[in-house]
Amino acid sequence: MVVAGVLSSVGSISTVVAALAALMTIVLARKTVAEARAGRSEARGAHLAEMDQQAVFLEATTTAHEREMQARANALASELVLQRLAQVGRVEELIGEVSDIARFEIEHPPLPIEGQIGTWTRITCALARLEAAIVICERLGVAGGVADVLAEARKMSIEYRRVRTPPESVVGATMGMLDRMKFITETDHSLSIPD
């Protein structure tokens, strides 16, 4: 009986120790779970802070990119206007050259081509160069009033090359064209550099 009592006491102690060990395991497991939750919460907070920083960086990068693209678009538009202005200036020079050639031919009529009706006029070539310069203007997208005057100049160039036009008519037409070109280039907003 004593042995049975001792064994019963030892069994009870073992049960208590086992229960304490199980309790300690549960407490440690809860502590580990709580630490894991705190770690996840901290990691989540750090991740959210990182995401906020990334969002701010993305917004700043997007804004900078949009500004750069706008600046590039403005630079391209300004460059295109400068090219248009340069080409319109070239057209004006060629109109003046046609007029100068016609004046010269009034004072010094060109020789007739032997066996043919025409003469060795330089006006025809100058008018062809004028038309080519006008085509370049059209390719550059010249619009508005300038485009209308250029269309008139092109029509004049074609007509005066096909018909034996007297140099006096060429001088009158080109001088009128130069006056219109001057007025239009001063007033046409399509030839103004954008802000």
Describe this structure in words.
This protein has 195 residues and is an all-alpha fold. The chain is 84% helix and 0% strand. The model has no long low-confidence stretch (mean pLDDT 87).
CA-based shape: rod-shaped
* Major sheet summary line: none
Q: For the residues shown, what is the average pLDDT? A: 87
Report how far apart the termini are: 110 Å
Number of helices: 4
Helix content: over 70%
The secondary-structure class comes to: mainly alpha
What's the β-strand tally?
0
Amount of beta strand: under 5%
Low-confidence parts: none
* SSE order: HHHH
Estimated radius of gyration: 46 Å
Main traits of this protein?
single chain; 84% helix; mainly alpha; 195 residues
Explain briefly what this protein structure is.
It is built from 4 helices and no strands. The protein has 195 residues and is mainly α.
Topology of helices and strands:
Blueprint: H1 2-107, H2 123-139, H3 144-162, H4 167-187
Helix pairs in contact: 1-2, 1-4, 2-3, 3-4
